[in-house]
Amino acid sequence: MMMMKRIDLDVNRFKKMLRGKIRKDLKKYVTQHELIGRRGRELVSIPVSQIHIPQFRLDPQKANRVDQGDGEDGSPIAISSADGNGHAGNAPGEHIIEVELTLDELAKILGEELELPNIQPKGKNTIQTARNRYTGIRNTGPESLRHFKRTYKAALKRQIISRMYDSKTPIVIPYREERRYRSWEEKPLPESNAVVIYMMDVSGSMGDEQKEIVRTEAFWIDSWLKYQYKSVEVRYIVHDAVAHEVDSHTFFHTMEIGGTIISSAYRLCYQILKKDYDPDEWNIYLFHFSDGDNWGEIDTRECFDLLEDVLLPRANLFCYGQVESPYGSGQFLHDLREHFTDQDTLVLSEIPDKEAIYDSIKLFLGKGK
Fold this sequence. Notes:
Blueprint: H1 6-24, H2 26-30, H3 34-37, E1 43-49, E2 96-102, H4 103-114, E3 128-138, H5 148-161, E4 181-190, E5 193-201, H6 208-228, E6 231-239, E7 243-246, H7 248-253, H8 262-276, E8 282-290, H9 296-311, E9 317-323, H10 331-339, E10 346-351, H11 357-365
Parallel strand pairs: 5-6, 5-8, 8-9, 9-10
Antiparallel strand pairs: 1-2, 3-4, 6-7
Helix pairs in contact: 4-6, 6-11, 8-9
């Protein structure tokens, strides 16, 4: 095994310091939607401040030191005598470093800090991934895959046949053509898959601030689920009085002014699941965000029927997050709590502001379903 260079050790230590800083300030990062804008295809760029680098200092116990000129403790060093036109400040600046993390690293930090349990997948769908398995032997290959036992046997066989083998001095040196190497083949293996369906109320009472909360929380939820599963499909539903399936950009940017009929979203969600996602083969995660307004008790009862009959039996989790709006009544969350007193797959969360996103994620994902 190749010995790690000293510079690599230093780099690894520095990376460990950076990740420690990110862990310490994770709650702050979770509430900042600007982080999403720094996301690339595989990496997220995170601004980290106040990284203290170790410095050399003179040992006061040592008598022999290198000094230059007269001076006293606290005297400034190398001050220019030139007059400047500007006004210099005397406060230290904040040093910012852009740290790039993979989405998996970010999700791992999130899971460790929120103490999220690993998800236990259910079912195996038809999508497969390939895994290499070493099943054969061939005459060429990299030295790291050399099969020493097979190589030794080939050389030993040649020496015995040619009567070159001496049992008193059993030295066996293989020729190049006698070297044997392990070979592999790709073996398709089924992988557990997950689908995430986000539903959001986009009626007139849901403003930009509420949608920003939803977008930020969805980013972290996606990061964790994609870390837990090899493949995650994401679907989006928006609703006011009528529900529509939309793409990601529309989900986070659409503006509506209609009323609110929540059951329209639940019916559309059921249609999507029934058509595309067999609950025996897919791990299903449903998230609904609203400010709690709904069109009367009749529709609320219909929502309860849809949840009990078709959505909760299919889903690993159904998570309802209620964001606070100056125009929303917030009644739907209270109705859910009164009706579903003991439902393990239903998780309810109040999200009054950005600061509550951190605890909401922990509440949603903390069961490990």
